[in-house]
Amino acid sequence: MKKYLFLTLIVLLTACDKSDDAGQDNPVISSDFIRVSPNLQLLGDGQVEDLSIEANCNWTITKTQKWLTVSPTSGSNSQRVKVSAGKNSTGAERTDILTIRGGNAPERYVMVTQAKGQEEQTIVSPELAIDVSTLDFGELAANETKTVTVTNKGTGLLTVNIRSDNALFTVSPAQLTDIATDQSKTFNVTFNYSSLTTSYGEKNASITVTPTYEGGTAMTIHATAIAKEPDTSSETVEPGKDDNQPPT
User: Fold this and answer.
1) What DSSP assignment string belongs to 63-86?
2) Which of 34, 95, 100, 206 has the greatest count of CB atoms below 10 A from its CB?
3) Distance between CA atoms of residues 237 and 157, nearest Å
4) What is the CA 92 to chain-centroid distance, rounded?
5) How far apart are CA 91 and CA 69, in angstroms?
């Protein structure tokens, strides 16, 4: 009799243990996963880079900085995402953190770093301008001088050399230096009537203004003058002397 009671007690205890186990919560182990590279480096002058996402669930990406572009910002399973930025003109390196969330997988973070862009160089390019293309001295019986204005319409400093192809038309000075942006300097062109001896009439010259900067284009001024012959019709006669009287 005692033997049967003992066996009954064992059966009851075993049933209670199984009932208790069935009532306990079993821990849930997630099967979702997301894997990404933790860092991404972009060039300072702008770049588009691929970010590889390995996953078996739906996911989303969030960012914090406006200068950074991500496309697409959501997806499912494994795929590539375009991460891009324009030129970094801030003068310093900049960063942003991408956060990837999906399913029951732990959040993943990607630090995106962009180097500073190259500083823009100011292009120095003077530009020659002169106020006249012709110089007409008209009819002359004496020396005469005209003034020409040279202006720098570009950037940097302008230097020009000035030359005449006719010695009757001289220039002074023969060089203008360091003309700043939107500033002007002048030179003179003189028609040297006094240099004439026997040849009169129309005279011509080309005055060439040549900038010294690389790629500069020379400009030419056409100079003209009409040299009048000296008036010899009014020679003075000594008082009391008549050229028409015969010699004594």
Assistant:
1) ---TTEEEE-SEEESSEEEEEEE-
2) 100
3) 62
4) 19
5) 20
Whole-model pTM?
Answer: 0.49
Tokens of 187: 């030179």
Distance CA 219, CA 215 (A): 13
Label residue 247 exposed, middle or buried (CB < 10 Å: 0-12, 13-18, 19+).
exposed
- pLDDT tens string for the chain (248 positions)? 444 444 443 444 444 444 444 444 555 556 899 999 889 999 999 999 999 999 999 999 999 999 999 999 999 999 999 999 999 999 899 999 999 999 999 999 999 999 998 877 667 789 999 999 999 999 999 999 999 999 999 998 999 999 999 999 999 999 999 999 999 999 999 999 998 877 899 999 999 999 998 888 999 999 999 999 887 665 554 555 555 555 54
Amino acid (1-letter code) at residue 62? T
Q: Compute the C-alpha angle 216/217/223, nearest 5°.
A: 135
* Long-range contact pairs involving 61-65 (C-beta distance under 8 Å, separation at least 24): 61/98, 61/99, 61/100, 62/98, 62/99, 62/101, 63/96, 63/97, 63/98, 63/99, 63/112, 64/96, 64/97, 65/94, 65/96
